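User: Hey, quick favor. My workstation is busy. Could you predict this chain's structure for me?
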Amino acid sequence: MTNKQNIGWKLMLLCLIFVFLAACSSGNTPANNPPAKSNNVKTEEGDKQPPPDEKKDPVTLKLISWSDSYTELYKKFNEKYPWITIEQIPVNSQPIMEIIAALEAAGTPADLTWIDTDLISFDQSGLLEDLTPYIEKDSTFQSVKLPDGFYDTMTYKNKKLAVPFVDVPMWILVNKTLLDKHGVEMPGNDWTYDDFRSVAKQVTDPDAGEYGLTTQPEFQMRLTSTKAIADGHAANLQYLNADLTQSLLNTPDVMNDIRWLAEFVSKDGSMQSNAKAAEQGDVTREFINGKTAFAIGGDWVLPNLKENAKFEWDVLPFPKGKVSQPGYSIYGPLSLLSGSKHKEEAFLWISFQFSKEAQKWKIDQGANASVIDPELTAYYEQTPMWQGKNIEAVKIAKENAVIQPGVTIPAWSEYNWNNIVNEIVFDGADINKLIPETDKWNKRTLEVRDQLK
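Assistant: No problem, here it is.
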């Protein structure tokens, strides 16, 4: 009996060993259990993406824009969201509202658009989605730090109608070769408007076809209204008051700012009029030609300069005035269209603009970083775009930037400041035209503001 009991006990022990080994080989022990798969994969910025094995139906987003320079960024976005493709719909000088309507009528509505006029008219037409609820639940927007007032110029009646997809800074472009030829040193970053005017006169040599300033509307569009802020004559760009309700273009101090620039043509001779520039083959209209010392530039001019300039060039911040040294920056509005059939996917493109990857790409193109982050600030020193250039000027331009207003100002499209100042500076028109035109718009914008309440 004892031997039989021993044999039975041994057989039972062997069975238990076989069961244990089988369990081990199938990987079912607690130590070998794989971790449960997360429903989402987090990226560096905290954005959520579907897991790699989740299948998504392909989506093509139609983006209306007037620039074809974002192809590389479209590809980066597609790498992050492989099921989403961006298709750029070119503007080709056609009003964007007409493009939206045509795509709607064809049954292929657009999803996203850059904005070419004021946001109010788009909102009144029911074309734009309020981005507020999307932003409030988006992990990227909630994890980044944005400048104070970042949404101010694109918010109307508590609705965020757009976000700035790019922050376009402005600088004074400098032809260092021309300055050297005339024995003039490169000014420092703390230069003044008096320095600017003095250098422009020193390098002017009509016999050689060389002038201080390029004959370009950008000077009256950007520099004079920035000078008005720098000297304490206006609170905002385009000569607007503090609450953006009235233009100060008809006040004595601001009119003197316009006279100041007009004298570069009429008195100093350091900038050619439209007529003189045309007589000489329009050579001085383009900074790239090397015949002018200064021009106003933004990121759009950099590729051509880097590739084709036959002279040494650099950048300076806008000069100091009597009270401050403001810069000039443009926010490019990007909106989600209410007619989109892919709103969630379209917002991913908006959110992607504020990832570090996209922000660094934009710095590489010469734009500002919108996100406040030490890593992005340090990246200005690393990007190939500014190697060998005045990087401190680029940083100053970013830090001192005043944002161009307009897209949420009532009757903004009727404010005729640009054409009139252009005629005064470059065609010698009577500066007193500013008074009735400004009075008319100041009345009109208040009327429209009341109608919109």
